[in-house]
C-alpha cells in the first residue's frame, strides 16, 4: 500500500473523490494515490478508510490553546490598557471642572445683579460731617409744618416740646406714649442725623424721653412705639440705647439732672450703621439693624404714667441734619 500523505492536498483529493463518486476522474486519481491492490477490494471503503486515517493524523498535529490561555490573554490586554496614557479625563475631573465653571458664572451674575448697597458698607459715620440743616425747631409756641404729632399722650409746644400735664390717661403700671415725628422720611441709602437738646429737671421712672429712628410708621395705639426702631432713651436719670432687635446697649449711663441741666443727643444713621452721641461723647455705634429696603422715620417721643408729668423733662430744640453734598 502506498504510504498516505498527511499533507492537506492528499486529504482534499480523497474528500473530492468521495464526493464525486465511482468512475469519475477524481475517483480514479484518488485510487491511484492509495494503491487499490487486490481486484476485489471495495474501492469506496478503501478511499474512506484512507481519508479517515489522514484526517485523524492531521487532527493529531493541530495545535490547541492550553489551560488558562484565554485568561492570560485578557490579563495581558488589561495591563496594556492601564499602562497606556488615557486620552480623555476621568468623569470626576470633568464634574469638578464643570462645577467650577458654574460657580464662576453665578458669581459674575451676582456681581452685576445684586445691588451694590447690599454688598458694601456705608462710609464711617464718625467721618461724616452733617452740616446742612434740613429742619430745626425750638417749639416755642407751635409744632410747625415739618412735625406731626402722634400717639395717645398729647404733647404741646410751649417753650419746648412737652407732654400735656395730667392727660396721659395711664395707670400706675402702664405707660402711654406720644410725641412728634419729622414729616419727611429718608431713603435707606440717605444719611442723616437728628439732634435734640433735652432739659432734664427732675429724674423720674414715670417719665421717659426718647429720640428714635424707625423703619415703620405703624405706631402702637398705647405706647406710640413702632415694632422696629433704634432708640436713645432717658429714664430716671439714666440713658441707654435700644436696638431694633430689642437688645439694650450702654445701659445705666448717668445723666446730670437739674433745672439748668440739659442733655445734648445726636443719633446719626446711614444705610448700614448708626452712631449715638451724648454731650459730645460717643455712647454707642454699630449696625443699625434697620430694614435696608424701607424708608426711615425719625422723631421725639415721651412715655408717661401716673398722671402728673409737669416740669420733669421737656425737649428744648430739635434739628435734622444731612451731609454736605460733594
Helix share bin: 25-40%
Query: What's the Cα radius of gyration?
Result: 53 Å
Our count of helices gives 6
Shape: rod-shaped
Average of the residue pLDDT scores: 82
Portion in strands: 25-35%
CA(first)-CA(last) distance: 127 Å
Instruction: Report the major sheet.
Output: 7 strands, antiparallel
Q: Report the uncertain regions.
A: 1-6
CATH hierarchy, class of the largest domain? Mainly Beta
Could you please say which CATH topology of the largest domain applies here? Jelly Rolls
CATH architecture tag of the largest domain: Sandwich
Give the tally of structural domains.
Answer: 2
Structural class: alpha+beta
With strands numbered from the N-terminus, the spatial order across the biggest sheet is 2-5-14-7-8-9-10
Report on the structure:
The structure is a single chain. By secondary structure, the chain is an alpha+beta fold. The chain folds into two domains: 1-85, no CATH class; 125-323, Jelly Rolls (Sandwich). Helix content is 26%, strand content 31%. The chain contains six helices and 15 strands. It has helices at 8-20, 25-34, 43-61, 69-83, 91-113, 116-119, and strands at residues 130-137, 147-150, 155-157, 161-163, 176-182, 192-200, 207-214, 229-235, 238-242, 248-254, 262-269, 273-278, 281-287, 297-304, 313-323. The strands form three sheets. The protein has a seven-stranded antiparallel beta sheet, with no helix packed on it. The protein has a six-stranded antiparallel beta sheet with strand order 1-15-6-11-12-13, with no helix packed on it. Strands 3-4 form a two-stranded antiparallel ribbon. Helix 1 (8-20) packs across helix 2 (25-34) and helix 1 (8-20) packs antiparallel against helix 3 (43-61). The longest helix is centred in the N-terminal third of the chain and has 23 residues, at 91-113.
Amino acid at each position: 500500500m502506498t504510504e498516505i500523505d498527511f499533507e492537506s492536498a492528499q486529504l482534499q483529493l480523497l474528500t473530492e473523490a468521495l464526493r464525486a463518486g465511482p468512475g469519475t476522474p477524481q475517483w480514479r486519481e484518488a485510487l491511484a494515490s492509495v494503491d487499490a491492490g487486490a481486484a476485489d477490494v471495495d474501492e469506496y471503503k478503501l478511499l474512506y478508510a484512507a481519508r479517515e486515517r489522514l484526517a485523524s493524523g492531521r487532527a493529531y498535529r493541530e495545535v490547541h490553546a492550553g489551560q488558562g490561555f484565554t485568561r492570560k490573554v485578557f490579563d495581558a490586554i488589561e495591563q496594556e490598557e492601564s499602562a497606556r496614557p488615557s486620552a480623555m479625563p476621568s468623569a470626576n475631573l470633568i464634574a469638578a471642572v464643570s462645577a467650577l465653571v458654574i460657580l464662576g458664572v453665578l458669581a459674575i451674575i451676582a456681581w452685576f445683579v445684586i445691588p451694590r448697597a447690599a454688598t458694601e458698607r456705608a462710609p464711617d459715620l464718625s467721618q461724616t460731617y452733617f452740616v446742612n440743616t434740613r429742619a430745626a425747631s425750638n417749639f416755642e409756641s407751635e409744632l410747625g409744618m415739618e412735625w406731626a404729632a402722634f400717639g395717645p399722650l398729647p404733647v404741646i409746644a410751649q417753650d419746648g416740646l412737652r407732654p400735656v400735664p395730667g392727660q396721659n390717661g395711664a395707670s400706675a403700671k402702664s405707660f402711654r406714649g406720644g410725641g412728634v415725628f419729622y414729616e419727611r422720611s429718608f431713603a435707606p441709602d440717605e444719611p442723616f442725623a437728628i439732634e435734640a437738646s433735652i432739659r432734664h429737671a427732675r429724674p423720674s421712672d414715670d417719665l421717659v424721653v426718647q429720640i428714635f429712628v424707625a423703619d415703620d410708621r405703624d405706631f402702637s395705639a398705647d405706647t406710640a412705639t413702632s415694632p422696629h426702631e433704634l432708640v436713645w432713651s432717658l429714664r430716671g436719670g439714666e440713658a441707654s440705647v435700644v436696638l431694633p432687635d430689642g437688645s439694650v446697649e450702654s445701659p445705666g449711663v448717668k445723666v446730670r439732672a437739674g433745672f439748668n441741666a440739659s442733655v445734648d443727643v445726636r443719633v446719626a444713621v446711614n444705610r448700614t450703621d448708626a452712631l449715638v452721641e451724648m454731650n459730645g461723647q460717643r455712647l454707642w455705634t454699630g449696625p443699625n439693624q434697620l430694614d435696608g429696603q424701607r424708608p426711615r422715620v425719625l422723631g421725639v417721643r415721651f412715655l408717661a404714667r401716673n398722671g402728673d408729668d409737669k416740669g420733669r423733662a421737656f425737649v428744648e430744640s430739635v434739628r435734622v441734619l444731612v451731609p454736605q453734598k460733594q
